[in-house]
């Protein structure tokens, strides 16, 4: 005996299960499996999305609370990973992120222990950030540039100290105050402040 129509198992129009052809029963099992997967996937997806949102929300709350500390000093900002990321994003809007990238490269450079790696890293940093018409040339004076060039001949972990200090001062005096006044930073501090008020009102 044959089914009234293909896929009839889902519609309940077969004439008795015992009389059903094997192909129809196999279709029914396959359809049941597929329906089961489809029914469970949205629920699983919802759980994953909810978990991700909770984690992101937690990170966002932490960084917004931390943001209040960034206005205490430029050092406080540079100590915070979230602060460095937020400041870097701001500098991109001003097309001056190379200053922070150079400062970070120098910090990483100081941790290098191998003399061979120290020399190769020093040359890469100099070519990328310091030399005249470098791809990401930082804004330092000619004298500092020449001092740094001479330091390369006997590269040590301190060979960029002067150039790094000049770049840091430039960011602290120029970009940092504008960052604190930026809309993105103001939003972060408002969120942190409002959460603090909300917490106090519930205690």
UniProtKB/TrEMBL annotation:
<dbReference type="GO" id="GO:0009968">
    <property type="term" value="P:negative regulation of signal transduction"/>
</dbReference>
<dbReference type="Pfam" id="PF00615">
    <property type="entry name" value="RGS"/>
</dbReference>
<feature type="signal peptide">
    <location>
        <begin position="1"/>
        <end position="19"/>
    </location>
</feature>
<dbReference type="InterPro" id="IPR036305">
    <property type="entry name" value="RGS_sf"/>
</dbReference>
<dbReference type="InterPro" id="IPR024066">
    <property type="entry name" value="RGS_subdom1/3"/>
</dbReference>
<keyword id="KW-0564">Palmitate</keyword>
<keyword id="KW-0343">GTPase activation</keyword>
<keyword id="KW-0472">Membrane</keyword>
<dbReference type="GO" id="GO:0016020">
    <property type="term" value="C:membrane"/>
</dbReference>
<keyword id="KW-0449">Lipoprotein</keyword>
<keyword id="KW-0732">Signal</keyword>
<keyword id="KW-0597">Phosphoprotein</keyword>
<feature type="domain" description="RGS">
    <location>
        <begin position="73"/>
        <end position="189"/>
    </location>
</feature>
<comment type="function">
    <text>Regulates G protein-coupled receptor signaling cascades. Inhibits signal transduction by increasing the GTPase activity of G protein alpha subunits, thereby driving them into their inactive GDP-bound form. Plays an important role in the phototransduction cascade by regulating the lifetime and effective concentration of activated transducin alpha. May regulate extra and intracellular mitogenic signals.</text>
</comment>
<dbReference type="InterPro" id="IPR044926">
    <property type="entry name" value="RGS_subdomain_2"/>
</dbReference>
<dbReference type="InterPro" id="IPR016137">
    <property type="entry name" value="RGS"/>
</dbReference>
<dbReference type="GO" id="GO:0005096">
    <property type="term" value="F:GTPase activator activity"/>
</dbReference>
<keyword id="KW-0734">Signal transduction inhibitor</keyword>
<protein>
    <recommendedName>
        <fullName>Regulator of G-protein signaling 16</fullName>
    </recommendedName>
</protein>
């Amino acid at each position: 005996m044959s089914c009234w129509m293909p896929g009839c198992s889902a519609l309940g129009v077969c004439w008795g299960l015992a009389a059903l052809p094997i192909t129809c029963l196999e279709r029914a099992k396959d359809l049941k499996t597929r329906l089961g997967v489809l029914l469970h996937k949205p629920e699983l997806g919802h759980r994953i999305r909810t978990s991700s949102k909770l984690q992101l929300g937690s990170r966002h709350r932490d960084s917004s609370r931390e943001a209040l500390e960034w206005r205490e000093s430029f050092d406080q900002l540079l100590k915070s990973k979230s602060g460095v990321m937020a400041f870097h994003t701001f500098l991109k809007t001003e097309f001056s992120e190379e200053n922070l990238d150079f400062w970070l490269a120098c910090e990483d450079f100081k941790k290098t222990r191998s003399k061979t790696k120290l020399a190769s890293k020093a040359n890469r940093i100099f070519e990328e950030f310091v030399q005249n018409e470098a791809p990401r040339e930082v804004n330092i004076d000619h004298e500092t540039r020449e001092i740094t060039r001479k330091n390369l001949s006997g590269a040590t972990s301190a060979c960029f100290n002067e150039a790094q200090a000049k770049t840091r001062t430039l960011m602290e005096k120029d970009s940092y105050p504008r960052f604190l006044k930026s809309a993105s930073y103001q939003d972060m501090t408002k969120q942190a402040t409002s959460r603090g008020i909300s917490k106090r009102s519930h205690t």
